[in-house]
Amino acid sequence: VVQDILENYSNETLILCGYNNTRHKLNQAVRQYRDVESPLPQSGDRVVCLRNNRTSKVYNGMTGTINNLMDAIDDPEELFWMAEIALDNEDYRYYGHILRETFGAQPPEGRLPMAPDTTPPDLFDFGYALTVHKSQGSQSPKVVLFEERFCKMTDDDYKRWLYTAVTRAEQELIIIGSAS
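Given the sequence above, the corresponding C-alpha cells read:
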C-alpha cells in the first residue's frame, strides 16, 4: 500500500507525518519513484517554505513547484540558487534566492549568510511530504497520514495533533499506523 501511494504521488495528495526524519525519507522515496536520481532539487520538484519572509511574500508551510533553478546548481561551492516557484493557491510566482543547504536537511540555526543581492535567502525544502505541524492551514483532496505519536505527547496533545492531520483531507484520508 505504501509503495503504491509513493509511486502514484500527485499534487492532489498531501503526505503527512510526525517527525522530520520521516519527512526526509518520504520525500526521498517519492523522488526515487519519480526517477529523480540527483539529491539536488530539479524543475518539477515539490517544495515547502520553511520560514516566513514578508518581503518575498512566502510564508512557513506554503507549498509549490519549482519551475526553474538558475545559477550553477551543480556547483558544490554555490550557497544559493535563484529560483522561480509556482506557489499553490496563489496568483503570483516566487522569484528569489533560496539556500542550498536546507534541501534534505534541517534548516540552519542562527544567522543566515546573505544572498548575492544582499538580502537574506529564503528557506525551502522538498515538499512531497510534510510534518503535520508544517501542514497547518493546508488542505488537499487526498491525505495520507503516517501516524507517529511522540513519546512525550499527552493524550490531549495527541488528539489535537491527530485532529490537525485528519482535517487536512477534503475527500479521502488514509492513515498508516504501526501496531503497538
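Helices lie at 2-7, 20-33, 132-135, 155-166. Try to locate this feature in the C-alpha cell string yourself.
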